[in-house]
Every structure is written in structure tokens, then in C-alpha cells.
Design goal:
Radius of gyration: 20 Å
Order of helices and strands: EEEHEHEHEHEEEEEEEHEHEHEHH
Distance between the termini: 40 Å
Number of strands: 16
Strand content: 15-25%
Helix content: 25-40%
Strand order of the largest sheet: 4-1-5-6-7-8-11-12
């Protein structure tokens, strides 16, 4: 029987309602969650590790990197066939993307969590954990890299995003769909990724890197504040195809003049940014100024690539090649 190491980091899967606190808080141990996932012992030998008790918003880059390093340590053990990470769903997509972009391993790394706490009638944690261990132990998952398993579906850690605040099917790969499904204990892989960028393995991520969003009528104040207070790079969550209001342009120009990387992503849920529009603030004009374009990456994904790439010492030319792949 395959050996799977489960790293429990906290999140809603470990929460129950505390009447004194007035809401759900981390309460359950790794063993209690495992006990609730009935039948898991028939799928794999699971070694549980209580790595942390953090709600999703309490994860930091430092904690994400420490988790990533622990995953690498566990994967290096010859008898371990895969790793499962339970994680708070508010930042699960970011941690999964960071691991997907920085951990080269044929062994599966599976992130999962829960949208309901143990106090809710529809607590989905045990089922998601059972599915995650099933995927980690399945020969079909070998070579998929880092994946996310939620609600019976299997997503690439490079693609998944949280698209709903509370729904059980909150995780999706918009416009792409899941890699596969878990159906009565069977892992069915329908597609595999091709042409993914090579992993980035810095000694540690470079911080801080900010995200500044565009909206109708916004100006350069937040861009200037980020640049003037020490950010190493910035991602602009632009409108549509990669466009910004004209009043943001001077702030973008100042970033580029200072020689600091500025990446254009889109606040839209699907699609690539591009150089379609040539009016003031349009993508064509921003690209000509020297802005980098994030392709299909969401702003939070582009930020993580910057953290890793700058940590690895990439210069502007290397960054442009990375983002334009």
C-alpha cells in the first residue's frame, strides 16, 4: 500500500464554530480530521503531520516558502509516494501555484481544503481529504505535478482559482476545466498540461511585490505609493485585455523609468492580456513603454512568478522571456 504524507496547515477543514468567538476557528487536530475521513486507511498508509493551524488569510510568503521546503523534504523520502496538503481556501490557489512553479517532482503534491466547517451539516472536509489521498496514491497522478482536489474534481495548481466565496464548487480552472475527476474512488485523468514553463528554484522569494488594481477613473497614487515605499516590482490588475485609465499611465512610466519590473495582468477572470488597443492607456502603448505582459496569468499568479524570478536573480530580459512564453 502506498505511503502518503498529509501536511495539515489549518484552514476551514480544521475549524468548528466557537460560540464565544462568534464564528468558526481552527479547532480540530490532524488525527481528528483523518478519523472523520472514513475508509481512508483502505486507500493508502497516511502519515499525518500537524504543520500549522493557519486560516487562509494568515499565510505569508515566508510560511508558504517554509511549507514548500517541507514538501520537498517529504518528497525526497524513498518510501513516500505523494504529499497531501490541507490548506485554507482563501489562499490555497496561491500556495498551490507557488509550489507548482518551484517544486520539480514526478510524485504528486495534492492541495485540498473545505468550504464548510465541522460544525456545518455539509462539512466537505473529510470527503475532500479522502479524494486528495486517493489522487496522491493513484498511478494516474504521477507526472501531473502539483494539483488541487476539491468537490470531486482535479485541477492543475497552475490553473485553479477560487471563483466563489462560499459555494462548495468554488474552485475552477476558468475556460479550461478540470484535469479530471474522482469517481467512486477511481481517478480519471482527462487531460494533461503541455508546454508548461520550467520551474523556478530561488534560494528564497524576493519581497515585497505588490498588486495594484485598475478601476474606472483611478490614477497613479497607489502605484506611486508602492514604488516609493520599497516594492521591488508590481503587478497591475488592468482592465479587460490589459488596459488602464490614462491617469495611471504616468505612474506606470515612473516604475519603468526607475528600472523596476511592472507586469500587466487582467482583473478579468479569463483570457490573455495583449497589445490590441493603441489609445492612451491601451495595452499597445503600455507594451511600447516597457511594461511586461502576464499572458493568461491572473494577477496573483503573476505576482508569485515575480517573487520567484526576482529571487532567482532574473534581469528584465529574462523576465520578459518568462512572461511571454
Amino acid at each position: 500500500m502506498r505511503v502518503i504524507v498529509a501536511l495539515f496547515t489549518g484552514g476551514t477543514i480544521s475549524m468548528r464554530v466557537d460560540e464565544q468567538a462568534g464564528g468558526a476557528v481552527p479547532s480540530l487536530s490532524a488525527e481528528e480530521i483523518l478519523d472523520a475521513a472514513r475508509g481512508i486507511e483502505r486507500v493508502a498508509r497516511v502519515r499525518a503531520e500537524q504543520w500549522g493551524r493557519y486560516p487562509g488569510p494568515h499565510m505569508t510568503v515566508e510560511r508558504q516558502w517554509a511549507l514548500r521546503n517541507r514538501i520537498i523534504e517529504v518528497l525526497s523520502e524513498p518510501d513516500v509516494h505523494g504529499v497531501v496538503v490541507t490548506h485554507g481556501t482563501d489562499s490555497l490557489e496561491e500556495s498551490a501555484y507557488l509550489v507548482a512553479r518551484s517544486v520539480p517532482s514526478p510524485k504528486p503534491v495534492v492541495f485540498t481544503g473545505a468550504m464548510r466547517s465541522a460544525s456545518d451539516l455539509g462539512w466537505d472536509g473529510p470527503a475532500n481529504l479522502l479524494d486528495a489521498v486517493t489522487v496522491a496514491a493513484a498511478p494516474e497522478a504521477e507526472g501531473l505535478g502539483t494539483v488541487v482536489v476539491m468537490g470531486g474534481r482535479l485541477y492543475s495548481g497552475l490553473e485553479d482559482v477560487k471563483t466563489h466565496t462560499h459555494d462548495l464548487s468554488a474552485f475552477e480552472s476558468p475556460g479550461l476545466g478540470p484535469l479530471g475527476v474522482i469517481d467512486e474512488g477511481r481517478v480519471i485523468v482527462r487531460r494533461r498540461l503541455t508546454g508548461a514553463s520550467p520551474v523556478l528554484t530561488p534560494g528564497r522569494p524576493a519581497e515585497p511585490v505588490d498588486i495594484v488594481s485598475a478601476w474606472a477613473g483611478c490614477d497613479s497614487r497607489l502605484l506611486d505609493a508602492s514604488r516609493e515605499t520599497g516594492a521591488l516590482a508590481v503587478v497591475v490588475a488592468a482592465m479587460g485585455r490589459g488596459n488602464v485609465p490614462p491617469a495611471m499611465v504616468p505612474g506606470i512610466e515612473r516604475w519603468i523609468t526607475d528600472g523596476k519590473p511592472l507586469v500587466i495582468a487582467s482583473r478579468a477572470g479569463q483570457g490573455r492580456v495583449g497589445q490590441t488597443y493603441a489609445y492612451p492607456g491601451g495595452g499597445r502603448r503600455l507594451y511600447e513603454m516597457g511594461a511586461l505582459f502576464a499572458g493568461a496569468r491572473r494577477p496573483q499568479q503573476a505576482r508569485i512568478d515575480l517573487l520567484l524570478a526576482l529571487g532567482a536573480g532574473m534581469d528584465t530580459a529574462a523576465l520578459r522571456e518568462l512572461f511571454e512564453r
